[in-house]
Amino acid sequence: MEKGRIIQGRGGLYTVRDEAGQGFVLRAKNKFRRANITPLVGDNVDFTPGRGEEHGWIEEIHPRRSYCLRPPVANITQLVITLAPEPVPDLLLVDKLLVFSFHQRIEPVLAVNKADLDPDMPGEIEQAYRGAGVKTLALSAQTGDGLEGLRRAMAGHITCFAGQSGVGKSTLIAALTGEDLETGEISQRIRRGRQTTRHISLIEKKGLQVLDTPGFSLLDLPEEMPPEDLRQDYPDFAHFAHQCRFAPCLHDREPGCAVDQAAREGKIDTGRLERYRQLLSQAQDNWRERYD
Prior knowledge:
The chain is α/β, with parallel strands linked by helices and about 290 residues long. Helix content is about 25%, strand content about 25%. The protein has helices at about 30-35, 90-105, 120-130, 145-155, 170-175, 235-240, 260-265, 270-290, and strands at about 1-10, 15-20, 25-30, 45-50, 55-60, 65-70, 75, 80-85, 105-110, 135-140, 160-165, 200-205, 210.
């Protein structure tokens, strides 16, 4: 058997690249279907190559470092959460993506693309998320500004770009890797992006490993997450949480909540706390309805 990584999957066929860079088209053995396991792009696998026109077989899937169901990808080590002045940033989505990153122990990076359209935006984003310990980069895929800093941050990672449609994820990937990806324009009528990426693929170019993925704009909280676990994925709250009057404190306007007090004093971004409470409400609803 040989070792490789799944770089694309379509219609029950999986493209696997071996350690020498050669690609093979394979099928998954029936044992995975019986075990309710679906091979994912990013999976490290053992495989048997096919002979002649025959497809080979995926024999084993190695344990996953990280896992996402929607979009279905595995072994991400870095998530580049991409924003832009247009479309208007969806910071609730940014916070969901950060929860996903911290929950899966994936390193997040905030990338403000099209920063030339609003030079103040990168600083505002950096200020809002500084307490969470997340790096913020100002970029322009069109001018090339900031791309070398992003390239350095991506070195050694399997990186996935995530964010709203229209923020320029595919354009950034193309600028970094030279891969010619389909890109979309901002709809002038609704001022938000059109989704252009349709299939998940792992691009390995210019020393980078990048997953081009649709679907992260639809990310939701894990349905089985206990509501009290959500606060653990907010490192900007941790410095103050031990001072709360009650334990556990959900930081949802309880008396003596030190996180709430820190937000009032400007030590935590107030919008971040407000959005946390929105996500907490969603987590509580999911938890109540988990057996329905």
